[in-house]
Amino acid sequence: MSDDVAGNGAQGATGTDAVKAGLARMLKGGVIMDVVDAEQAKIAEDSGACAVMALERIPAEIRKAGGVARMSDPEMIMGIQEAVTIPVMAKCRIGHYVEAQVLQALEIDYIDESEVLTPADEASHVDKRAFTVPFVCGATNLGEALRRVAEGAAMIRTKGEAGTGNVVEAVRHMKTITQDIRRVASATPDERFAIAKEMAAPLELIEWVGLHGRLPVVNFSAGGIATPADAALMMHLGAEGVFVGSGIFMSEDPPARARAIVEATTHWDDPEVVARVSRGLREAMPGIEIAELGEGGLLQTRGW
Amino acid sequence: MSGGDARRPRIGVLAVQGAVSEHEAALADVGARTSRVRSAADLEGLDGIVIPGGESTTFGLVAGESGLLDALRARVDDGLPVLGTCAGMIMLASGIAGGGPQPLVGGMDIVVRRNAFGRQVHSFEAPVDVPVLGDPPVRGIFIRAPWIERVGPGVEVLAEHGGHPVAARDATRIVAAFHPELTDDRRLHRLFVEGVRQKAAASEHEEDTVVGAQ
Predict the structure, then answer these.
(1) CB contact under 8 A, B15 and A132
(2) Among A20, A91, A128, A159, the one annotated catalytic
(3) Spatial distance between the Cα atoms of A228 and A233, rounded to a whole number of angstroms
(4) How close, in Å, is residue B207 to chain A by CA atoms?
(5) B61 neighbourhood in chain A, CB within 8 Å
(6) Closest Cα to residue B156, out of B137, B141, B172?
(7) Which of A5, A78, A297, B51 is the most buried (most CB within 10 A)?
């Protein structure tokens, strides 16, 4: 991580590592909800979301519609920014740094360089150090997470498998990251050279993880969370908060479900609360078995 | 109601959402015991409480529904020492300038403006002179930070930045728009915990006197 882009605002130094990673710290323990318009954004805020993710179509719809998924219309994003006081995030395509520049010009609070959109560059992710706005990126294992951190990501989330309502991939990715961290932490200094090579991650970051036993930035879970119990499960597994995409607005009663998932994320280790808030939520979004997607249907394999 | 050991007071951290572990680490560094507060029952036995940074709308909503907000307000009104940073400062204000109504703890005679310095691209860090903490200035990390727009007579401004009050205190409350818990500087936490210690020692002394009289 570097302070390369730290600029000088009217009040002080903007875009520093502390300022970028700091906002993610303020989001911890919270739920970030995908929304497609101002009305949904308001529902999310009124349900206790700690931030919203503005996008044109939620992942389940993107999956259905097919074609190329791109950054959202700035008009729509601005409408959402007007509607709520909580942070507004938006997605750019992997490697599409002009979309990221547009989002920064719109003063979006966090950019998700996301595999849910169609990748724009098959070789490189965005150099996130060159931005004042912080980035969150998806990861399926520690090496991938640390490559994104090296590029300047100030927050990590599991990729999971977006738009499926099936939490199994998010669980796999969170457990893999945790297991990878344990392995690095228990490795001897000389073994960490080999691990850095094997995981294709910078040695300094592997050593940092070894010393501290955690990722250098906040780690949320995303991709397939559809119920309050799903959210609580991810918190048990070590997530510091959750993203819920299709799970809320593809369900039958979005406000009630949004509210319940927020409660379950705060009270994740209290099964009585999770039980109480899970009652009477009507139908969750229809889920998809991962095997039905086939290799080509997976979003998590986008990015590297 | 006291945690029972004035030297190592028990400080709760409101744990609805937000930067909880950072405050726990800072409090431990200055010799306090900590516990997380998610329900009204968790307020039992606390000598003080911290309301961390996070989203104040989330705090108000989640704590409001469970009855925690009312219980917390009652304890704070009753003199439980409290430290609020960023969203915590918003929660303790008696009013919000230019914003719609939102559930607050309230009680401190200040009016704050949310996101006063702008969206995240305008978030910044800068040295902030806090005379009560001495030299050097605090490394002030301001994240979508509020400022204090109006200060009542019983409130002492502890720091200003860009012409706006950004830290203040009254008899039992300390608030800051920035995040000392994101730095290694423990002076603000020490100031808070010192106040809690003095209050806890005074109330232990009171209890001793009552027992002695029986």
Answers:
(1) no
(2) A91
(3) 9
(4) 35
(5) 46-48, 262
(6) B172
(7) B51
Residues of B in contact with A51 (CB under 8 A): 55
- Show residues of chain B in contact with A23, CB under 8 Å: 120, 123, 143-144
Q: Count of residues for chain A?
A: 304
pLDDT digits (tens, 9 = 90+) for A163-213: 899 999 999 999 999 999 999 999 999 999 999 999 999 999 999 999 999
Instruction: Say which DSSP state A143 is in.
Output: H
Residues 102-161 of B with CB under 8 A from A: 114-115, 117-126, 140-144, 161
User: Any idea what the Cα angle at residue B180 is, between residues B177 and B185, rounded to 5°?
Assistant: 150
Could you confirm whether A91 is annotated as catalytic?
Answer: yes
Distance from CA of B131 to the nearest CA of A (A): 19
How far apart CA A86 and CA A45 sit, in angstroms, is 7
pTM listed for this prediction: 0.94
Given its phi and psi angles, is residue A12 left (phi above 0), alpha (psi -120 to 50 degrees) or beta? left
Helix (H) or strand (E) holding B113: strand B108-113
What is the rounded distance in angstroms from the CA atom of residue A77 to the CA atom of residue B60?
26
Catalytic residue among B22, B86, B161, B164: B86
User: Residues of A11-33 as b/e, b for ≥16 C-beta within 10 angstroms?
Assistant: bbbbbbbbbbbbbbbbbbbbbbb
Question: What is the percent of chain A with per-residue pLDDT over 70, rounded to a whole number?
Answer: 98
Q: How far is CA B166 from the centre of its chain?
A: 13
Q: Which two tokens stand for residue A111?
A: 């950019």
- Cross-chain residue pair A50–B124, CB shorter than 8 Å: no
Beta bridge partners of A8: A13
At B13 the three-state DSSP class reads strand
User: Which stretches of chain B drop beneath a pLDDT of 50?
Assistant: 1, 212-214
Measured from the Cβ of residue A67, the count of other Cβ atoms closer than 10 Å reads 7
